Amino acid sequence: MVSHSPIGPVEATKVPRYSGLGTFVRLPQIEAVPDYDVAIVGIPFDGGTSYRPGARFGPSAVRQASRMLRPGYHTELDCTPVKELQFVDAGDIACTPYNNQKAVEQIEQAASKLVGKNKAVIAIGGDHTIALPMLRATTKVHGPVALLHFDAHLDTWGSYFDEPINHGSPFRRAFEDGLLVEDKSMHVGIRGPVYDQDDFIRDHEFGFQIIRCTDLDREGVPAAIKRVRNRIGDTPVYLSIDIDVLDPAFAPGTGTPECGGMHSREILQMLRGLTGLNFIGADVVEVAPAYDNAEVTSLAAATLIFDIMGLLAYKISGRS
Amino acid sequence: MVSHSPIGPVEATKVPRYSGLGTFVRLPQIEAVPDYDVAIVGIPFDGGTSYRPGARFGPSAVRQASRMLRPGYHTELDCTPVKELQFVDAGDIACTPYNNQKAVEQIEQAASKLVGKNKAVIAIGGDHTIALPMLRATTKVHGPVALLHFDAHLDTWGSYFDEPINHGSPFRRAFEDGLLVEDKSMHVGIRGPVYDQDDFIRDHEFGFQIIRCTDLDREGVPAAIKRVRNRIGDTPVYLSIDIDVLDPAFAPGTGTPECGGMHSREILQMLRGLTGLNFIGADVVEVAPAYDNAEVTSLAAATLIFDIMGLLAYKISGRS
Amino acid sequence: MVSHSPIGPVEATKVPRYSGLGTFVRLPQIEAVPDYDVAIVGIPFDGGTSYRPGARFGPSAVRQASRMLRPGYHTELDCTPVKELQFVDAGDIACTPYNNQKAVEQIEQAASKLVGKNKAVIAIGGDHTIALPMLRATTKVHGPVALLHFDAHLDTWGSYFDEPINHGSPFRRAFEDGLLVEDKSMHVGIRGPVYDQDDFIRDHEFGFQIIRCTDLDREGVPAAIKRVRNRIGDTPVYLSIDIDVLDPAFAPGTGTPECGGMHSREILQMLRGLTGLNFIGADVVEVAPAYDNAEVTSLAAATLIFDIMGLLAYKISGRS
Amino acid sequence: MVSHSPIGPVEATKVPRYSGLGTFVRLPQIEAVPDYDVAIVGIPFDGGTSYRPGARFGPSAVRQASRMLRPGYHTELDCTPVKELQFVDAGDIACTPYNNQKAVEQIEQAASKLVGKNKAVIAIGGDHTIALPMLRATTKVHGPVALLHFDAHLDTWGSYFDEPINHGSPFRRAFEDGLLVEDKSMHVGIRGPVYDQDDFIRDHEFGFQIIRCTDLDREGVPAAIKRVRNRIGDTPVYLSIDIDVLDPAFAPGTGTPECGGMHSREILQMLRGLTGLNFIGADVVEVAPAYDNAEVTSLAAATLIFDIMGLLAYKISGRS
Amino acid sequence: MVSHSPIGPVEATKVPRYSGLGTFVRLPQIEAVPDYDVAIVGIPFDGGTSYRPGARFGPSAVRQASRMLRPGYHTELDCTPVKELQFVDAGDIACTPYNNQKAVEQIEQAASKLVGKNKAVIAIGGDHTIALPMLRATTKVHGPVALLHFDAHLDTWGSYFDEPINHGSPFRRAFEDGLLVEDKSMHVGIRGPVYDQDDFIRDHEFGFQIIRCTDLDREGVPAAIKRVRNRIGDTPVYLSIDIDVLDPAFAPGTGTPECGGMHSREILQMLRGLTGLNFIGADVVEVAPAYDNAEVTSLAAATLIFDIMGLLAYKISGRS
Amino acid sequence: MVSHSPIGPVEATKVPRYSGLGTFVRLPQIEAVPDYDVAIVGIPFDGGTSYRPGARFGPSAVRQASRMLRPGYHTELDCTPVKELQFVDAGDIACTPYNNQKAVEQIEQAASKLVGKNKAVIAIGGDHTIALPMLRATTKVHGPVALLHFDAHLDTWGSYFDEPINHGSPFRRAFEDGLLVEDKSMHVGIRGPVYDQDDFIRDHEFGFQIIRCTDLDREGVPAAIKRVRNRIGDTPVYLSIDIDVLDPAFAPGTGTPECGGMHSREILQMLRGLTGLNFIGADVVEVAPAYDNAEVTSLAAATLIFDIMGLLAYKISGRS
Q1: How many CB atoms within 10 Å of residue E162?
Q2: ipTM over 0.90 threshold
């Protein structure tokens, strides 16, 4: 943890929430603090999109919606993240919109500068492609990780139009790169048809287990929490949330919405059941604001990030 | 109850629902009946808003959406409110948009003319500030009440920018004014971070108990109904519903949406579990139509008001 | 089943999903195959609407949203419909927008050409009026059917403005025509007030049982599935889904939205619990795209149709 | 003119414009005054629509947008209509949505009660079908009229799907009924392709002259005003404005938008150039609010109606 | 010209315009006719976008909006294109979304199959990148061309993020490839700030002249027509229209809107002033439907394409 | 002018425009430079609104839209403002949303710190109320000014609901405070009805002349430029632009839209005709993003601000 007393967000009693430059929950910019525990960084890249593009505007939209949060005490996690750790907004990582390979390198390079032994990074996408360089940067410091992946889709597909780097393949690439601990990773929220049943066989070979939305129907969220905790144990975990894990009713503003998804309360309940896991990095991706409505999708993403801030406060501050 | 046979809404078989001046569910205007049991009144005030303004257009939007209802027999409550009581649309209360103190006085004065020993008022907000003058007008006739408050937020905060009258403080003001019976009031649907954990301590001192959305996750709606009934008993109850108690998926058109909220079916189930409580007034507030989508928020508000009409029919017509 | 190996949709690995003329899930047009098992046909008629019109644009919107599906393996139903049966897009049925009686005749005539002993038709509405000619065409081949009807509303009302053919009356007309097997039909998802309590009495006389949304609150989806299976048994079933059976949060783009509806996961769970029923035809109606948001309603409709394709694959391919 | 001093709209200094039941510019309802000079009446009928329906919601949307006007002194016409004449809001005419012939009869009957020797009616559509019964009702009192018709389309087409009464045919029907003075009528704003060049020949036979948008490009608005004045002279004029005469940029919320239309300033300039014409009735039609954006279309319609109020004040109050 | 009598669009009197699979103005698909004069083809590629992506959905949106046109007699051009030439809808060109170089090759290859000595192609973008392969395919048959380019932006910029193929550079690439006749090309509608004044110097070196929107303010459209006609003479012309040449009021649904643009009437007037030019190919690009409103942008694009059809009918049918 | 070479915006060739924290056209924040010539500051206050509120979100929306500009060379003004002067983004002025008097004092105080002898401030509103404290702060340094005011409305009204400080009164207050040079001020773009003809008489007494939109119809923009230049001469000018001066087609996202307004090209042409005037401060106000569409209003506001930057570069850099 940083040695100084954390500098918190702008105070809403002095500056109305709709005022001022919109860093994430109005946190200090990275340049304004001597050191930090957790950096929140935007990665406005959507060159890996296969259907609706637009996640390049995700970071600015999620920051704008995050104004609505009152980033203080979190009742369910019983903590005030911004008082326990130094959170900062590290701005956006600039990368080319035209070349997925290059973009992934640029992102890895920039993210690597933010990651550290005692420093976590939370990325705001961009499309899901950005999880690959985030994993590369993170595992360089922390070694292989368990991936806890909330999504409607497996994202372990192969190349698409001869392009191995796309938003449907980051976790196959991560597996091939040896970034994932064997048999520890999980998908949560999977649903919908797939082009080929073999997709599941390959996914299994990459070491994933799946909790489908229909599993939640049958067994409920507490059972799912148990399955996740049992499988991951104390392995370092990278958390990757594709906002399309939520039903389109809760997150219309996304690139490949899928009917029959998780409700906001379910994913919040799951995250709050995962305190104490060894989280070492995270991303929330695939917010495509052009398809959003009254900021409901951006706000959902911002809320999830605030919960991740709480989970990191738990972990980094060494709570049990 | 009025002595005459109630005059009901315009008949949809003769005048299509999209036709005619839009009073609430096309009820008669107050001037058109000799007397009434329940007045529905708009209070288009949003000067107390702290984030997204626009609830001043709430009354006109909720009335427009209420055209979609068929205001007859209510299966779950087994009653036809408009046949049992005389409901009227009392129009809107005119008040200044610029001065919260004055507006609150103007609202109280106008509402007082509508309230009566055997007359209930249902207010359509406007922002939550309007609950304070509504409580003042109501308790002048009925004495202190239990407050049953559905909301994402406590609304027992203090002054904001030196203004004691705002949409985050009505129930602290009501408590200070002695309008609330000690230890009978409840918040339902609370969630999200707060600036300071002490907010809950103060809220408790003002005599509130809280049912959080995470309580609903754990215990379900029937348990919550039991808690409400046990606490309130037969104390006169004022019901105040901030539409943001619903998740943004169900109510995007509001000023301070909060992810992880109640689903429409949950709040309807709760209300229908509260028949027989001694309701003496109510409001439904914080519909901000500029952020709505296909009238889903306005329609939710109109539906809740129709359920309140049923609860009042139960109570006033002396059903057990 | 057709004797040839089914011709499937356009391959997404060769032609991106946003490319090409948008037949339903990019299936072949009816002219492009020698024969078919299941025809999907649009019926862009909304002359029976009583509130918000616009379902005439339903077929084009649902086809457009269906691009988002990956129409391959269906995990819950464990089948790949487009490999088991020949599905085709039969285009739209042209009919007058101005005369409900004539339109119904034109639709019946056109639908009759698509229906066959071993051929099912899935209609995309259009308003619910189109269920009547669909039932007429279907029962001419298959005899009277059980109707399994998902809807917020009964749709067994009588004439409206002297017009017996409208979107609130198709199932009363079907009953009067003797198209329904006695005491086998069911409504699922009913809610909201009705003009008159007698509506339920008449509905009962027409041989319907009702599962209200509040029944789902109390008993859950598995119990509802059991009730449906018990009642229908192996009677031939026509499935009619009004998209307003979903809550407005999940389906804002419809003509008469009703608060407190089914969630997407609930209806999908129900359909998937009905494998083996003797489905012989279906429709999904009342998508009104002008009120939709980011295609969430159209996508829900497309997803339901894909599930129906799975149920038909089950049935026609003789799986048990 | 009425003998009493006109009762004006609600005063905005006492009741904010977003408050109260929304009659047109908050005029008194017809029941609230002893007599009137001009009645504004909604005709929420869209059964004649050939493409996008929804104009049934036109009257409620135009009234809502009219709140934005400050209905006092009109600089260009140098008059304060509501002080010179008694204007009232006569509510909506109820008619069947299902049968164009019947609807037209119902509208004629209801409109006839509002029309009078010294009483003008301004109708808010509804689709353009409603111009036919408006003309029938008006000419019964005033005899045949010159039609001054602003529209992208001729609306002198014939039957469509065997239905002679539809929104593309009102003026052919009016011509056939002998409601139009020979060689006095004009279309203004015509543009876009037509199915057949003969449409223009027939239109000419019905006694129309045409000012196309491309004529405005070439000659400007003042020349167009001159052409209109010369042709119409002092013949009694019925003014019919289809909002799609405006370019979709100015009026997106309409049923059959047509690119390349009039700009708002052009139509206002034209109307203001027509003072002194012998206007005896008018309609503004085809606002389809589901396609509108921030009320720009409804506001345009409301503004045009206010200008018509000024033209009638000119005429009825006998100014020269 | 084809030797057979042209097969026209679906007849709107038999099949309502909202019915049926939506080819452009409901023209026959290319497979349905023996030969054609003009092919309209979609190119759903937006990988060259620098700001708002989404033009990949341009072709489907423009086709949907084109239903609104009545594709018959064009008054200003005095012709009925679909009766004079055989127009077809050639579907969409499939290409990778991930690699601009490859995509451009794929598009060139596919377009080359459609182009011919007496066959013109009109492309619906897609972003402006697609003009490059269109020019390559076209000039292979017709030799170098004059480019008539309507746009807010020059599109003669260089590489962006090291990518020479992007939507800001097609015409520099075309110039470098020798596809443009020296000193014959023109930009029309240019406006807004540029990164560097040198952009204009280079643009001039590539042989372009510029008509800025401010030139239109000063000189009017007829003068601009004269300038274009004088410069181009009878050189073969390729016409490329970026929809952002229109002001955002007329075309909000585009990737890089620029305030102060052309009005719809101005561009239509210009096109109609260019009859007789030797048009040999065209595109209309940069419609990004996620940002559109009530289809106004798509409809503008469809209308421009219909005018281009008229210009080609003029030219190919040898009118003078 | 600052003595250092100006630090310009983030380079778009290195950081895509959708990346990074969104200061206005991505200028440096005020803290990042030693000194500045022109500060752009947001004033998110909308407590003076009389109809649609929401301009508190104006500054964040205008900054977001300003990303679309390429803030380099301005062709019409032949300058590159950011190379000639040091422009900075000074963030937002925090003020109470609840008390207009206090807010005005807070704004004046904060603005006064930014204003200076050789320092201009451009304010982004907020509602028009903010022009009053801006004028107070500006005239403290520069003495009384001529006001050049673009607006649909006079904004010289009096108190509204007893509140003298509101968005309809800033210029009456300014006149009363002696902030305006007699007989030098002008309104441009006025239109629409007013409550009372006397409004114009009073307005005249406050020393204003008016150019109505109908004057532009008659005389054109060049004549209007001449009138402005003649009247103002070399008096120091404060420029205040209410975005509702534009027609709702060009600026739907505003609080009190008025049909028949200026087109974007007209206001740009006017501004560009005013080079050399002695501009000493400016504001662009009344953008209400909740009513905007595809950012067209915000983009119009950002574009106008960029033109003002050019006018200031002209003036401060002493060009003639």
Answers
A1: 10
A2: yes
